[in-house]
Amino acid sequence: MAIKDTYAEIEKTLGLVPEWLKQMPEGAAEGFWVTARDFWLAETEIPNKYKELIGLAVSGATRCKYCCLFHTEAARLFGATEAEIAEASMMSGVTMMGSTFINAQQVDYDKFAAETRDIINYVRSHRQVAAEQAGTEAHHH
After folding, report:
1. When you count CB atoms within 10 A of the terminal residue's CB, does the N or C end of the chain come out lower?
2. Is 34 helix (H, G, I), strand (E, B) or coil?
């Protein structure tokens, strides 16, 4: 696709071609747009609201004010509440806090992986027990 055709498609979709995208080399701009169009902006397995909340969390972690602004506004466009936006931002902070600590401590990865699997198995089994108990209690009332 010629760059002028790419720009025309972007303008039809977004209302304008952002200046930053015009600054990209042609091959990169075309590739970026194809990925944006066919994955990021498209209806995929992950609803667009959640993709934008993920984008916001990543933007917070990478400290990109441009992406934070864009993904916050796009999340709102797709129906995210202020509480959901705050939670995505907090997940970014919590994840970075844990990541920074365990990387700085040079925690053994194999032990971390084994403990993670043990935690998941424990929680899964206790959820099943709680669900079974709730089902039994419902029959007694």
Report:
1. C
2. helix
Percentage of the residues of the chain whose pLDDT score is greater than 70: 96
68: how many CB neighbours lie within 10 A of its CB? 19
Element (DSSP H or E) covering residue 55: helix 48-62
Round to the nearest angstrom and report the end-to-end CA distance of the chain: 67
The type of residue at 3 is: I
pLDDT of residue 139: 67
Please report, for residues 26, 39, 129, the alpha-carbon distance to residue 116 in angstroms, rounded to integers and kept in the order given: 44, 31, 20
81-132 pLDDT, tens digit each? 999 999 999 999 999 999 999 999 999 999 999 999 999 999 999 988 888 8
- The Cα 119–Cα 108 span in angstroms is 16
- Helix (H) / strand (E) element for 90: namely helix 82-104
Q: Are 55 and 67 in contact (CB under 8 A)?
A: yes
133 burial level (CB within 10 Å; 0-12, 13-18, 19+): exposed
Q: Residues with Cβ < 8 Å from 26, sequence gap 6 or more?
A: 3
Whole-prediction pTM? 0.83
